[in-house]
Amino acid sequence: MIRKTRLYTPGPTPLLPAAQFAMAAADMHHRTPEFRALFQKVLAQLKVFVGTKNDVLLLACSGTGAMESSVSNLTSPGDKVLVLTAGKFGERWTGLAKAFNLAPEVVSAPYGQTFDLAAVRAALKPEHKVVYMQATETSTAVCHDVQAVARIRDEVAPDTLLVVDGITGLGTTYFDVDGWGIDVLIGGSQKAVMIPPGLAYLSMSDRAWAAMETSRNPRYYFDLRKERKNAAAGESAYTPAVALVAGLGAALDYIAGQAGGDLEKGRIALIDNAQVNAEATRAGLTVLGFKLFAPTAPAAAATAVAVPEGMDSGVVVRALKAKFALVAANGQGEMKGKIFRVAHLGFFDYLDTVALLGAMEHIARDTLGLPVQFGQAVAAAQEVYAKAAKE
Ligand SMILES: *Cc1c(COP(=O)(O)O)cnc(C)c1O
């Protein structure tokens, strides 16, 4: 039997062929009319993809670079900020805040859960310059309620900026960026937009721009004011990741093409797709006897699955790779060995979910010795799909 490599990791995600061709063909200099036209087109598309009237900037860095820029540009040493954390990426906000000598206060939830909104309400104070959170915590596959946090902010601390790491939330979760007042929303290229790592993008509200003017932090590469000025002229401050920008344009064209050329509708189709595939995956794996790691607030970006007590999740990850060349993700940090994760964000369709569940039936039966009947998980997923397709 031959095997095809299939990525099911929540970043990097599978590459869109049209984006790969666009990247291979992107043989151009960045201070030219050709590139300026491309860059301006992609920035305009990104606004629609993020769903905002705010400026969207594109940076040559991984997602964490944009996270760092939203700390260095919006705060000053000693500022109080609130961090909402329930996993490895939430902890990254705390680490960044400390690196810039802020005074972070933390509301946390156990891995696999989302935070208690009453605790958020009790902790948030007008003296907090910023509240930092994830939309979806990829390390545990939990979805946080950004809208509820935005409402609490409006009621308790209306001047506090809301910065959301939407790196796996974008393209998998519904946001009303301007309606809810999300001041900064961050995305990354290796997640829902179907291209390799190396680009981050972020939307910036007028309030966020104003905060940058009073920040006392040193900034150079990540001086977002400089990026904004250059973006207005169709350029980036430094050499952009030209090929990735071309790939991103092709990917956003593809997403628009899924809805007759309407990118706004295409974005919704992409989100619906992730939601249905996540639900189908949860249904299929539950039937096989697996326990969901985040049953109360599951993300559509990825599904985290606990293996039975005494078992090592690495066994599942390794068996998927060895038997089917299927690449799933182990748990991060102390969750390693306890859970495995599979993604639904970006270039995954329903048939990818069927393939994953078919493979998992083999692994569950032959590797883990669970009492599995072939077809069980696939049938459960088909029921979810059939119901969603009717609606
Ligand atoms: C992938 C990811 C990041 C960014 O990580 P990089 O390795 O810097 O791209 C940040 N937050 C979340 C929630 C993620 O899933």
Give the bound compounds. Answer: pyridoxal-5'-phosphate
Strand order of the largest sheet: 2-10-9-8-5-3-4
CATH-defined superfamily of the largest domain: Type I PLP-dependent aspartate aminotransferase-like (Major domain)
Whole-angstrom Rg: 21 Å
The CATH top-level class label of the largest domain? Alpha Beta
Provide the structure class. Answer: alpha/beta
Q: Would you report the number of β strands?
A: 15
CATH domain fold name of the largest domain? Aspartate Aminotransferase, domain 2
**Shape label:** globular
Low-confidence stretches: none
Percent of residues in beta strands: 15-25%
The biggest sheet amounts to: 7 strands, mixed
Write a structural description.
The chain is an alpha/beta fold. The protein has two domains: 6-12 and 261-390, Alpha-Beta Complex (Aspartate Aminotransferase, domain 1); 17-257, Type I PLP-dependent aspartate aminotransferase-like (Major domain) (Aspartate Aminotransferase, domain 2, 3-Layer(aba) Sandwich). The protein contains 14 helices and 15 strands. The protein has helices spanning 17-24, 33-50, 63-72, 88-99, 117-123, 146-156, 177-180, 206-214, 224-232, 242-257, 263-287, 313-324, 350-367, 376-390, and strands at residues 6-7, 55-60, 80-85, 103-108, 130-134, 136-137, 142-143, 161-165, 184-188, 199-204, 291-292, 302-306, 326-327, 329-330, 339-343. A seven-stranded mixed sheet has the order 2-10-9-8-5-3-4, with helices on both faces. Strand 3 (80-85), helix 4 and strand 4 (103-108) form a beta-alpha-beta unit. Helix 11 packs antiparallel against helix 14 and helix 12 (313-324) crosses helix 13. The longest helix is centred in the C-terminal third of the chain and has 25 residues, at 263-287. The two termini are 39 Å apart. The relative contact order is 0.16. The chain binds pyridoxal-5'-phosphate. The site of pyridoxal-5'-phosphate has 12 residues, from helix 3.
